[in-house]
Specification:
By secondary structure, this protein is mainly α. Helices cover 77% and strands 1% of the residues. A hairpin with a 2-residue loop joins strand 1 and strand 2. Helix 3 (58-79) packs across helix 7 (133-142), helix 5 (89-113) packs across helix 8 and helix 6 (118-129) packs antiparallel against helix 16.
């Protein structure tokens, strides 16, 4: 037990140092937290009583990271609203279809060009289509962009991507793990997932008056216990229906955003969100061994370039179809480019099925690059847009000095 407490304490020290450096540099915290995790982990040395491999504490750090993902997505749902989301149904459907279709097709094409066999090509396409909801949520909150015009569509595209991934993972599991798949089973699984998501939103909207009464609790301690019980209960039940637990948290946040207690929940939640969210990105880095990444550099970089091209193109097409400005549309494509936990899950599934060993380092380096580059590009999205605008000339700007003189 003493070693476990020491290891968790060391992990928190690394996280704190990364946070302090990020604050000092006025830099987004996500990449530094991931790099802090990569610096240690299974490949790190043991120095006397200090074990930087975090072997004994890996499970608890991973669980605390999962809690961080739930809180990040729950908070993002609170900052949005169910009413706004439902009004955007058509644009979300169009945007999600554009995003998934373009990225999955580019993934299939790149996998083929890299010379992978058919099953591995399907895996590469899945790795390249899986947006990291945790990283995207963290960056949106950190940069105070929850009220931006493109955030509404961004959330919708994340939900659409999750529905697609539920179907994709059902098919991939059958092909990779058993050599076959049941069409009836796939349809049933996907239908249950979609029905749960729609049902939760519909029932939640009807229950808002009742929720206002139930959550009218004077004690902050009891209030937050009730909210957390609902969060873990909904998220856990979501997993049993093949809906990512993080999406269950997001849906609950959308529902509770309609209640009278939204601001109270946010106030009590923010410290926990930031604490556990930081642990998630550190634990993500712990799973990446930099010593195994050498041979995957060129394929991973090709995948990164392809993803950035596909996401920015999808963002422009989806955003403009919904009436967003060119700049908001570009922000949409840039923000959703981060890759993370789901891509690693897809790669692990391929490993369990005995597919090409090259997929593991490819996925790790690809995810690492976009997990770091995605938040950076999002933070600098204004500069990225101006650079793109010089090439494509979407908008013409009058000289600022001339405007000021007039």
């Amino acid at each position: 037990m003493e070693d476990l407490v020491l290891q968790v304490g060391l992990a928190l020290i690394f996280i704190s140092v990364a946070a302090l450096v990020a604050a000092r540099l006025r830099f987004t915290i996500v990449p530094l937290l991931i790099l802090a995790g990569i610096m240690v982990g299974p490949h790190a040395p043991v120095i006397g009583p200090i074990d930087l491999r975090f072997l004994q504490s890996a499970e608890i750090i991973h669980f605390m990271g999962r809690v961080g993902v739930l809180l990040l997505l729950f908070y993002l749902g609170l900052e949005f609203s169910l009413g706004r989301f439902l009004k955007a149904g058509r644009s979300v459907l169009i945007g999600g279809t554009i995003y998934v279709s373009l990225n999955f097709t580019l993934g299939l094409l790149l996998g083929y060009l890299l010379g992978f066999p058919p099953k591995e090509v399907l895996v590469v396409a899945g790795i390249m289509t899986s947006t990291s909801t945790a990283i995207v949520a963290k960056v949106i909150v950190e940069l105070n962009r929850t009220a931006n015009p493109e955030t509404e569509m961004l959330l919708g595209m994340i939900l659409f991507d999750d529905i697609f991934l539920a179907l994709y993972l059902s098919i991939l599991s059958g092909l990779v793990l058993s050599g076959a798949t049941s069409l009836v089973g796939i349809i049933t699984s996907a239908s249950m997932a979609l029905g749960f998501m729609i049902g939760l939103l519909a029932i939640g909207r009807k229950l808002v008056p009742w929720l206002n009464r139930v959550l009218d609790i004077k004690s902050d301690e009891i209030f937050i216990l009730v909210v957390m019980a609902a969060l873990f209960g909904i998220a856990g039940f979501s997993e049993t229906l093949h809906v990512a637990e993080a999406i269950g948290a997001l849906l609950l946040g959308l529902v509770l955003a309609e209640t009278e207690h939204k601001h109270r929940i946010e106030h009590l939640l923010i410290p926990m969100r930031d604490f556990f969210g930081a642990i998630f990105f550190f634990s993500f880095g712990l799973n990446i061994n930099p010593l195994t990444l050498g041979g995957a550099v060129l394929p991973a970089l090709a995948a990164v370039v392809t993803t950035l091209f596909g996401n920015i193109t999808a963002g422009m097409l989806a955003g403009r179809s919904a009436g967003l400005s060119h700049r908001a549309s570009a922000n949409l494509g840039i923000t959703i480019s981060s890759r993370g936990e789901i891509s690693i899950v897809v790669a692990n599934l391929a490993q369990a099925g005995g597919l090409a060993a090259a997929l593991q380092p490819f996925a790790a380096l690809y995810v690492l690059t976009l997990a770091i580059l995605g938040p950076i590009l999002t933070k600098e999205s204004k500069s990225v847009y101006f650079a793109l605008n010089k090439v494509f000339r979407w908008e013409k700007h009058e000289p600022v000095k001339l405007q000021q003189k007039l």
